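pinging the channel bc i need a second pair of eyes. not urgent but kinda urgent?? the chain im working w is below, pasted from the shared doc
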Amino acid sequence: MPPGDKIFVKSEIRTKQDRERLHILASKFKLEDEFLDDLSVPNETVIFYDKASNLFEMALMLGGMGLGIYLLLETESYIMGSVVLIFSAYTAFKEYKEATNKTPQIILNEHGLQTVSAKFHEWKDIIDERAITESYGKNSEDYLVYHHPSGYERLSIDDYNTNRDALNKLLRIYRWRNKKIKRSRQL
């Protein structure tokens, strides 16, 4: 019973059955949550850039470069042609670099987590890890966020071969496996 609400709790009309159900419900919060391990998840998951989507976006930008060249050569839209050509070339190059990048972007296992922008941290040092979606008007972007002893990590995962829900599932599984290992060592 919250200390400041005693008068309100006493004034509530509850049957004996209601009080028993509330007591049973309150006792359930004292139990540790059950978790079933997903055995299809390997001992370690390595997440890379999504090569297929990067190559597709690169192909679109190569088409944009063709449009820019057409505007420059066949029309008198030199400014528009230049803008389209430069933007498309820059984006195509960026997508090519991501598609050919073989560096792991995120590594997860039962011992901890490492990202391309942060060194490996054990689960005991990681706080509040989750994949989130931030919306900006009609646009949204997914991020992996967590706190660690060196600071705060906020890594965009939109170009990776995972999504928010899958990454949240992996974070829960590996965190749970780590707790399971700690409990077995204590026994």
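so Residues 51-74 form the longest helix (24 residues). and The mean pLDDT is 87. — does that match what u expected or am i reading it wrong
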